[in-house]
Amino acid sequence: MPQALLALGGNVGDSRAILDRAVAMLCDGKDVTLAARSSDYRTPAWGVKDQPPFINLCIEVATALPPRALLDRAQNVERALGRDRAHERRWGPRTADIDLIAYDDLTLAEPGLTLPHPLLFERAFVLVPLAEIAPDRMIAGRRVKEAAASIDAGGIERLAAR
Length: 162
Fold this sequence. Notes:
Alpha-Beta Plaits
């Protein structure tokens, strides 16, 4: 079964509880099974700086869904948790954001879906939690732990388990 890596984040409401719900809604144990989950991290806002910090985490899943269907499922979960992409500011505050980072070793470029995620190697808030669960995973010719070690992770704080 294909393996996919997803990044989740949010900074509106009780983000840790919302992201717990997002993981539970996404991973039904049939079409999408949770294989690994990182710790939660408090991270500085990226892109738009004048907003509260985010809570971020990464998960690895085994999935029977093809990439587009997995992305659609993730976006349905976002909507169910109160996200309204049509009326939000790009990189602004949100209840839940779920990005498909990688899907096996697939390289894909189609409208609305690029794999691996095109901004992966610019985002410490993804690389740090991803390195926790998949340090030796190769994505686009780079080892995750090496990519995480090469980026400024200032301000990222691993949170204690609840």
